[in-house]
Each structure stands twice: as C-alpha cells, then as structure tokens.
Design goal:
The chain is mostly helical. It has helices at 2-10, 16-54, 59-85, 105-133, 135-157, 172-199, 202-234, 237-266.
C-alpha cells in the first residue's frame, strides 16, 4: 500500500496534469472519429431528405419555379439588361427594334437605384398579397409581371432616352416597366420561401429552404450562361431578353395550372 502511494505521488504519469492530458487526448480522438463518421452520414441524410422533398407534389413545383425565376433574374436583369442599356442591342433593325441606349455609368446606377427603391417599397405589399391571396397566387402574379416587363424593356428602349437623366418623368414608360419588374421580383422572392415553408413540417423546413436556394443557384448559373450564348447566337440582346421573358411566362403558366390542379385535388 505504501508502495502504491509512493508511486502515485512520485511517478509523472500518475500526476493530475498527466491524467487530464490523457483524458483530453482520448476525448479529442473520439470527437475526430465521430466527425469523420458524421460527414458521410450528413451527406446521406441530406440526399434522402431532398429526394423526399422533391417527391412531394406540393414542394416540387415551388422548387422548379424558383429555379426558373433565378434563371430569368440572372439572364435578364444581370446579364442582358446592362448590355441593352449601354448599346448592346444595336444589331437589331426595323420598327420597334431594341437599339440600345448607350447610357453612362451614372445613368446605369440610376436604373438599378430605381429598381431597388421599388423593391424596398413593395416588400410590405408583396407580403400582404401573399398572405391574403395565397402564396401560389402571389407567385403567379409575380411571374406574370416579371415576364411581361422583361419582354417589354427592349421595346421601351427602342424609343430612346428623353432628357439627361433616366429618372426624368418624361421617361415614364421605362420607369413604369422597371417598377412592374421590381414588384414582380419582390412577389416571387417573398412568396417562394413562404410557400415552401407552409408545405413542410418544422423538422424539414431548414432542408426545404436549402433545397429552394440550391435550385435558385442552379437556375442562376444556367440563366446567365444561356443568356450570353443566345444573345451571341441571334445577334440581338433585345430579342434574347424577350425570349427569356417568354420562357418564364411559360413556366409561370405551368405553375399556375399545376397549383390550381393540386388545390382542386386536395380541396384547399
């Protein structure tokens, strides 16, 4: 017994610091093993949850529609609109053709500032419309406004710019078109998240929103690439923008009929 007491007090591996170090090393090793096992499990669990969400008849149309919206956003607003406003549509000819405006950097900033102001002001309106009329109705309304505005911008640009500033009220056709575009985008951005949140339970909501964002990222990628390729192919930025608006209008029409059929089937 005295020998054991001397050993514990004298030998270094029996000191309290050594015991704590060994315990800490053991816990760290266990945590590393747990993490190495949990990463593949997390990927597998996410894949299973996304597969289950995409199989849901109510969630899948929302996810697909969000992909089309972000595709149109990247194609029209971020890729083609700057080209059109700075003269990228000059290859078009004939009456009503998109001729490009050759705007300065300041005028371009005014265009996007005007759209941002409209989005800020329309956020409460979009939320109320989605709550009162339903999320699906808000998505259809937003898609219709956005697609029609996207298709109309090249025609509005063909009339040129009046005055030295885009914000001159003499340019009300362009300002009105951009306002409808902004309102439609706000409706879509608000209603998509709200709609998918209503269709899932609390345990699946985070993954459902992650899936929604992923579909938007994929649409963002495809929209920007396809817009550039189509504009170069047809040789007309305005025509490429109008084609994008037509595609998005078709997607909106499909979503509207799909939602109406589901609501009738499940008597919502």
């Amino acid at each position: 017994r005295h020998g054991e007491l001397w050993e514990k007090k004298t030998l270094p591996w029996h000191s309290p610091d050594a015991n704590e170090a060994l315990t800490s090393l053991s816990e760290r090793s266990n945590n590393e093993n747990t993490e190495s096992v949990s990463i593949p499990n997390a990927v597998k669990d996410t894949t299973e949850q996304w597969t289950r969400l995409l199989a849901d008849k109510h969630v899948r149309p929302i996810v697909i529609m969000n992909g089309f919206y972000m595709s149109t956003f990247a194609a029209a607003q971020l890729t083609l609109l700057p080209l059109l406003l700075t003269g990228g549509g000059t290859t078009a000819t004939g009456a009503g053709a998109a001729t490009g405006l050759a705007l300065s950097a300041t005028a371009m900033g005014q265009v996007y500032m005007w759209m941002s102001i409209n989005q800020v002001l329309s956020n409460p309106i979009a939320g109320q419309l989605a709550d009162r009329s339903g999320k699906s109705a808000a998505i259809v309304a937003g898609g219709t406004l956005t697609s029609l505005a996207v298709a109309s911008v090249p025609l509005v640009c063909s009339y040129g710019l009046i005055g030295d500033s885009v914000l001159d009220w003499a340019n009300w056709p362009m300002l009105a078109t951009l306002s409808f575009w902004s309102l439609g985008g706000t409706l879509l951005a608000t209603a998509h998240v709200a709609a998918v949140s209503d269709e899932v339970n609390d345990s699946s909501r985070s993954q459902a929103i992650a899936l929604l964002r992923t579909s938007g990222d994929v649409g963002y990628l495809c929209g920007a690439a396809c817009a550039g390729i189509s504009a170069d192919f047809v040789g007309d930025v305005g025509l490429a923008m109008q084609a994008g608006g037509a595609v998005f209008l078709g997607a909106t029409t499909w979503f509207g009929f799909k939602s109406a059929a589901l609501n009738k089937l499940y008597k919502r």
